[in-house]
Amino acid sequence: MLIIRQILEVQVHLQTAKSQGNGGKMNNDVSLFERLRENEEIAKKFYEVEKRILSILSFKDLFDALMTEIKKQFNIPYIWISIIKNSEAHRLIESMADLDEELTESINIIDKSSFFALTGRQTEPILANDGLKPYFRMFPQQRHYLVKSIAIAPITMDGEIIGSLNQGDSVQTRFEPGMDTSLLEQLATKVSLCLSNVAAHEKLKFLAFHDPLTGLLNRRVMETALNREVNRAKRYSEPLSVAFLDLDYFKSINDTYGHETGDMVLKHIADNIIASCRSTDIVARFAGDEFVIILPETDMEHAKHLLDRVKKKMDDTPFEGKEITIPVSVSFGIASIEDFDNESCTPQALLKKADERLYVKKEARNKK
Fold it and tell me: pLDDT, tens digit, for every residue of 249-262?
């Protein structure tokens, strides 16, 4: 609105100068009028970008919109986002499976100390067109020698700086120190607001399907997946196995080291299960220290081999805490679709059989 008001004022000055025959003043006002018109067009373009991103609720869509809209509105060839390693934004991005290759290449992960060494912890945009080599750490690898001028706008999430929105051009004069950055700063503020909104939405979406402590699928999602896999195995006459695991002597760990350490041990167990399983396996936290692994297209023999691998991984990888090392081990029971006839094989029956076999193993261990 301020720019529009300024344009109207200049139009009045132009009419006055024309009526008074003041040519010099009129030429100056024409030049000012043209600059204001240019600024108005730039402001409109920033507004179009902001309008496009404000209603977005996923990281993928937000980053995609930023890349697309900024290139379209401003004809800027290089746009990317730097994200501080291990920041909340980095952790959320790591958990996303739907980022395509092109978008992944536009996200540059940088360690915290390097980022703040370059930006000085300031929130105002930085413009540079000389001595860019130190900034290469913020560039995607393939753009090191293509960019001749850059604009770096720090962005925040929930008030914490988590990276920057970066624009680059092969033209050295595109971004120069001393240029007005107020609109770029405004855009960075809107992007930061969007990031906070998206993060809240992504967390809620994650918690709807995952256990908050371990990050594994929750019981409800596991039951839905097992029902789907049982139906598929029956339809195509394919093997299917299910394993029930629990942590040995977990109560003793909690009693000795406390529940906080117990939670960290559970997270350690979950991470090792994931590391030992195949990408096609479905791993979930069932309850407490109990876990379920659904093994599609896997018969009993192969399921035993895989669970032996999981158990060995646990035996070989104790939990390392602050000044403590806790040996961990798991027990497991396996049920397979081959244990049942077609009629009696249900998701509930598979889980019950696997749980019963786990119980038998633990009873045998306790009698030793």
Answer: 999 999 999 999 99
CA distances, 251 to each of 213, 248, 258, 264 (Å): 17, 9, 10, 14
d(CA 299, CA 86): 39
> How far are the Cα atoms of 79, 140, 146, 313, 345 from residue 143, in angstroms, in the given order?
10, 6, 5, 41, 57
Residue 276 has pLDDT above 60, yes or no: yes
Closest CA to 305 of 327, 328, 336: 336
Do 128 and 271 lie in one domain? The reply is: no
Q: How far apart are CA 85 and CA 80, in angstroms?
A: 15
Helices 59-74 and 182-209: angle between axes, nearest 10 degrees: 160
Q: What are phi and psi of 173, to 5 degrees?
A: -90, 0
- The C-alpha atoms of residue 83 and residue 288 are separated, in whole angstroms, by 35
Q: Lowest mean pLDDT: which of 3-17, 77-91, 192-206? A: 3-17
What's 340's domain CATH number?
3.30.70.270
Indicate the residue type of 118: L
From 155, 147, 137, 150, select the one nearest 89 (Cα to Cα).
155
Yes or no: say if 366 and 251 are a contact pair by the CB < 8 Å rule.
no
Distances (CA, A) of 136 to 149, 168, 253: 12, 12, 48
- The answer as to whether 213 is a domain residue is no
Residues 196, 62, single domain; the answer is yes
Read off the pLDDT of residues 167-223 as tens digits, 9 standing for 90 and up.
Answer: 999 999 999 999 999 888 988 888 888 888 888 888 888 889 999 999 999 999 999
Q: 363 and 238, same structural domain?
A: yes
CA angle 100, 102, 104 (to 5 degrees): 70
